[in-house]
Design a protein that fits this description.
Elements: E1 6-11, H1 14-25, E2 28-33, E3 37-42, E4 45-51, E5 69-74, H2 78-87, E6 96-97, E7 103-109, E8 115-121
Parallel strand pairs: 1-4, 5-8
Antiparallel strand pairs: 2-3, 3-4, 6-7, 7-8
């Protein structure tokens, strides 16, 4: 049997990414090599951030070009959680739904432009 247990994203500001996901999503720290490697527990899966190569690092704001979306499911309170993130200055899109799907969705971006989605089953 094969199972996915960890997703690794490469980034410029590993400490900032760690702080973003711990302070906003309350993810537990599992492993860390300061400014190089961080692993966070995200439910059944681990979310890891690995420092990009030195030749790509920048002191300026770094934005990733990626086709990955991290999806976090809430059991309730999607609108309130979204509002809380917005008050922290986090870019969040409007809550949306799709015909035939029993969930609400809302996309946002972390400090490096990684897209995440909040998802909640319609009540």
């Amino acid at each position: 049997m094969l199972k996915l247990n960890r997703i690794i994203l490469f980034g410029n500001n590993i400490a900032g990414l760690k702080d973003f996901y711990q302070s906003n999503f309350k993810l537990e720290l599992i492993e860390e090599i300061e400014n190089e490697w961080v692993v966070l527990k995200a439910g059944q899966i681990e979310l890891a951030f690995h420092s990009i190569g030195a030749e790509y690092r920048s002191e300026k704001d770094f934005k990733v070009a990626s086709n990955v979306k991290l999806v976090f499911t809430l059991t309730e309170g999607l609108s309130d959680f979204r509002d809380k993130l917005i008050t922290k200055g986090i870019m969040m899109k409007e809550i949306k739904s799709f015909k035939g799907i029993d969930f609400l969705f809302c996309d946002g971006e972390d400090i490096e432009g990684n897209v995440f989605q909040l998802s909640q089953k319609k009540l």
